[in-house]
Design goal:
The structure is a homodimer of 129-residue chains. By secondary structure, the first copy, chain A, is mainly alpha-helical. Chain A has four helices and three strands, in the order αβααββα. In chain A, a hairpin with a 7-residue loop joins β2 and β3. The A-B interface holds A 9-10, 12, 18, 20, 22-27, 29, 32-33, 36, 39-40, 55-57, 72, 75-76, 104-105, 107-109, 111-116, 118-123, 125-126, 129 and B 9-10, 12, 18, 20, 22-27, 29, 32-33, 36, 39-40, 55-57, 72, 75-76, 104-105, 107-109, 111-116, 118-123, 125-126, 129. The structure holds a DNA duplex (30 and 30 nucleotides).
DNA sequence: TATCACATGTGTGTTTTACATGTAGGAAGG
DNA sequence: CCTTCCTACATGTAAAACACACATGTGATA
């Protein structure tokens, strides 16, 4: 328990001792990333996992959570899936973007644009001071 | 319990029914925002609370969490505080940025810059498709 | 036959955020 | 004097998002 090494009250994701880990990630960013990848081409989870870092920077998405997100997307009709064996190796579950998922991607893009503008505002104010 | 109204498995912050709430916020963004405001001028929590929305867009920061963040910052020597009465109204706890806090702000700015670039990459790939 | 890479998952704890509530000083009005 | 409101600071707790560990099975290859 307590992998961080047992500090007292509030240990905020330390990278080095006495050093707050600051990564500035966008919440649930793997979600729009998945939708974008699936817009480009229907494919399966493991491949998405390998394609994600190019979009997210360093954030290699956790496998377990990736599959959970994919199934959540499917539950809400944003993607569909079908099993595909035949190729060498284990069966793959191929995900495809639906029209609804496409719309969600558009919303994400709009939100990410706003987010980028907020960051610009912040950074300008930072540099100006 | 379950204020959202008892949906099944995975309710992902719905804004309207059948509609995923997509806000694309940066994690812990209130933290660099606080540090930036305090770099400009030492002040107290309640005033920071009112100044924050201008930086964060819509995200009016939750009061309770704001004060918790401030005390966490203080615990790690990133800000200092002193009580100040004398003015009308209840006593205020005035926070001031330390040199260490200033350095943390610089790190945040670097991380936020990377984050902005990632968003640009994403958005370009989005528009290109 | 043991091991490795591919592929899909579940379990569970930690961190971060959201929502509700509590305490208290002082001004304004009845 | 009593109530109500605004300021200001704070705690309690549940939900959401995330990280880490592990389980399962296929097929290739050493």
């Amino acid at each position: 328990m307590r992998p961080g090494g047992g500090r007292g009250a509030r240990c905020r994701r330390m990278v080095r001792p006495g050093h707050w880990g600051v990564r500035a990630r966008v919440e649930r960013f793997s979600e729009p990333a998945l939708l974008l990848l699936l817009r480009e081409r229907a494919t399966h989870g493991y491949e998405l996992l390998e394609a994600l870092p190019a979009l997210t920077g360093e954030a290699r998405v956790d496998m377990g959570n990736l599959y959970r997100v994919l199934r959540a997307l499917e539950e809400d009709g944003l993607v569909t899936s079908r099993w595909e064996s035949g190729d060498p190796g284990p069966a793959k579950r191929i995900y495809e973007l639906t029209e609804q998922g496409r719309r969600l991607l558009d919303e994400w893009a709009a939100a990410l644009l706003r987010s980028r503008d907020r960051l610009d505002t912040f950074l300008q104010r930072y540099e100006g001071g």
